[in-house]
Amino acid sequence: xxxxxxxxxxxxxxxxxxxxxxxxxxxxxxxxxxxxxxxxxxxxxxxxxxxxxxxxxxxxxxxxxxxxxxxxxxxxxxxxxxxxxxxxxxxxxxxxxxxxxxxxxxxxxxxxxxxxxxxxxxxxxxxxxxxxxxxxxxxxxxxxxxxxxxxxxxxxxxxxxxxxxxxxxxxxxxxxxxxxxxxxxxxxxxxxxxxxxxxxxxxxxxxxxxxxxxxxxxxxxxxxxxxxxxxxxxxxxxxxxxxxxxxxxxxxxxxxxxxxxxxxxxxxxxxxxxxxxxxxxxxxxxxxxxxxxxxxxxxxxxxxxxxxxxxxxxxxxxxxxxxxxxxxxxxxxxxxxxxxxxxxxxxxxxxxxxxxxxxxxxxxxxxxxxxxxxxxxxxxxxxxxxxxxxxxxxxxxxxxxxxxxx
Length: 406
What we know:
Elements: H1 2-16, H2 22-29, H3 33-61, H4 64-82, H5 87-115, H6 119-149, H7 153-173, H8 187-199, H9 202-232, H10 237-261, H11 267-290, H12 295-323, H13 328-346, H14 349-353, H15 357-379
């Protein structure tokens, strides 16, 4: 579990570590804020595509080999960014970095489904989401210290080092969790049929879109927050890191409360309550931004809105993976791709729309949460349908420590 948590953290670290450096990158590379925001979009696009490719591949060849190859590519891309001389090179390498970082996130989820069943999936995923919350707490704070001591390029030296350490640990300590007899056969055609079957399932597609649009609210905040807090409100990199960390604490708290509720409250009910709360809170945030509210009003509303994502993030995969045990890699990949794909499209909108950054950020956040709520209303009746027992795998009798050592 420690190793799976560390692999899950690679994605958030890759996204968040350099956020406080956006103004410095703009100056050093002689570019614009919107162009630098597109480097984040490229990362999210890479994470989306990478999950689709790696998740499906792992259903056929196992989890371990794709993970090792991806970590090696991640190290190479991180080193390349250290020497990037233009925003175009930075954007391309960030795409490759996101593509390879996707392996840690999607394969961790698939390994969880290989080793657990029933409500325990939700509990374990909630623990992994703790890392997704803690990593953003640490990343901007660490990034601010890198800026204080060195330059933004040193952050990618550190990410390359993280990749090397994880490659060695996976090589030495991670055993294959998907036995040969449970792997998908049939090559590319079987992979496409697996995705096609999932995409023809209205309930699954609804869940994936809910995850995508709700996560777009977080990515909108991630993309725009540095300009809102540092340029509009004049915060230093260290002050920004503290505010950003407060939001990450809220996400973490939500995910852990969710984990405590799993087994007593159905994840479907948790999901509905969380999205309803997010709709109200993001609406209040938009009203406050339009009224010219200061930090004392905006920050608490942002933090509480982000907290609802801590309930949504574990609930969606818990529902979807329980219903698709026989194609866990593909299911996890599509959910992850929806999260990062929609996020990649929505994240730069605030920079393209212009206007007061706080108002634009709040408007986009409210809009995507509202869309997620509308989709939930449309598909929630399908949650009552029973899981297809003919396609679910039997419970795995071995505990997780029998297959994963860290």
